[in-house]
């Protein structure tokens, strides 16, 4: 029998060096780069919180202090805003503090995403948990995490999120073989037979790319402990999940994928980040009405 447990914990790996954004990230974490007026990491924490995950563990590293400060109280700033009667800004800064119960653990060495997740073992314990990668922002209007949590509670094992991407992009992602079931009309949750980390396009089993949301069975921790370095010499979460896919349900095995068809914004490299900021700003009530006509005019100037 598959036993289900309510999922309460989220792990957010945020220890990367952010080299793609140098020199901006020389002395500040890439997670703190603003997406309009909130740091990118706040969107991800808010998404976890929105899905009812109020115990959030961040896996951090050197240079990440400002992230902890961002989610902490700021008494002097709060008092100044209160004295000025600026309740809107006061609310905005307090919002970040109220998103959940945040914990931090440091990765120490950058040995890969699988290793980062393994750093959460002690904190997570023996319950299923979510993993959210900071480079992927999922539009708050499009449901993903709760669908994944429901699927994990129903099916056991682990659940990942995938999205169809153009063929030429597959080598930037973990790619899955879902036996073609995703092409069935209305397919939303499909079993995963095989996962490959960043395959060359000719070896990719499909164009279904893993996007940065996972709901994992805690057995993944012991699997990660045995996972040798893979692509790029790093311990890959995809490799551990490949092993989990072949395991029996009693051992926490089995992997399913939720096919995401909503809006996702990649903030992992410069061009995608700029597109994400412009898209989200253009949709904002306070900025959109002025930004949209300007964008049209600007686009015509090329
Ligand atoms: C990681 C994962 C990869 C996944 C991607 C999603 O790669 O290893 O399987 O497709 O996140 O963003 P990264 O982008 O950190 O290199």
From TrEMBL:
EC number, UniProt record: 2.7.7.9
Keyword Iron: no
Database matches in InterPro entries: GalU_uridylyltTrfase_bac/arc, NTP_transferase_dom, Nucleotide-diphossugar_trans
Coiled coil: none
SUPFAM superfamilies (alphabetical): Nucleotide-diphospho-sugar transferases
Pfam family, one: NTP_transferase
UniProt superkingdom: Bacteria
A Gene Ontology BP annotation from the UniProt entry: UDP-alpha-D-glucose metabolic process
CDD domains in the cross-refs: UGPase_prokaryotic
Gene Ontology MF terms: UTP:glucose-1-phosphate uridylyltransferase activity
PANTHER family linked to this entry: UTP--GLUCOSE-1-PHOSPHATE URIDYLYLTRANSFERASE
Stated name of the protein: UTP--glucose-1-phosphate uridylyltransferase
Species of provenance: Nesterenkonia natronophila
């Amino acid at each position: 029998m598959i036993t289900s447990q309510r999922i309460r914990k989220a792990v957010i790996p945020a220890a990367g060096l952010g080299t793609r954004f140098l020199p901006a990230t020389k002395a500040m974490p890439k997670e703190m780069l603003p997406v309009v007026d909130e740091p990118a990491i706040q969107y991800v924490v808010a998404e976890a919180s929105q899905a009812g995950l109020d115990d959030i563990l961040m896996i951090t590293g050197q240079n990440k202090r400002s992230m902890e400060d961002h989610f902490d109280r700021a008494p002097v700033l709060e008092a100044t805003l209160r004295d000025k009667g600026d309740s809107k800004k006061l609310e905005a800064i307090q919002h970040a503090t109220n998103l959940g119960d945040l914990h931090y653990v440091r990765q120490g060495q950058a040995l890969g995403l699988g290793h980062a997740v393994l750093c959460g073992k002690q904190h997570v314990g023996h319950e299923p948990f979510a993993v959210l990668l900071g480079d992927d922002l999922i539009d708050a209007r499009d449901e993903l995490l709760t669908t994944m949590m429901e699927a994990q509670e129903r099916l056991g094992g682990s659940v990942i999120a995938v999205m169809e991407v153009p063929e030429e992009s597959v080598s930037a992602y973990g790619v899955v073989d879902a036996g073609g079931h995703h092409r069935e009309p209305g397919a939303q949750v499909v079993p995963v037979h095989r996962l490959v980390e960043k395959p060359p396009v000719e070896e990719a089993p499909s164009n279904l790319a893993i996007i940065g949301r996972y709901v994992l069975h805690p057995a993944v921790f012991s699997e990660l402990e045995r996972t040798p370095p893979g692509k790029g010499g790093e311990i890959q979460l995809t490799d551990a999940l490949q092993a989990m896919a072949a395991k029996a349900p009693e051992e926490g095995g089995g992997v399913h994928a939720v096919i995401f068809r909503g809006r996702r914004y990649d903030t992992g490299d410069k061009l995608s980040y700029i597109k994400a900021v412009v898209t989200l700003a253009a949709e904002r009530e306070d900025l959109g009405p002025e930004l949209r006509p300007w964008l049209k005019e600007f686009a015509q100037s090329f």
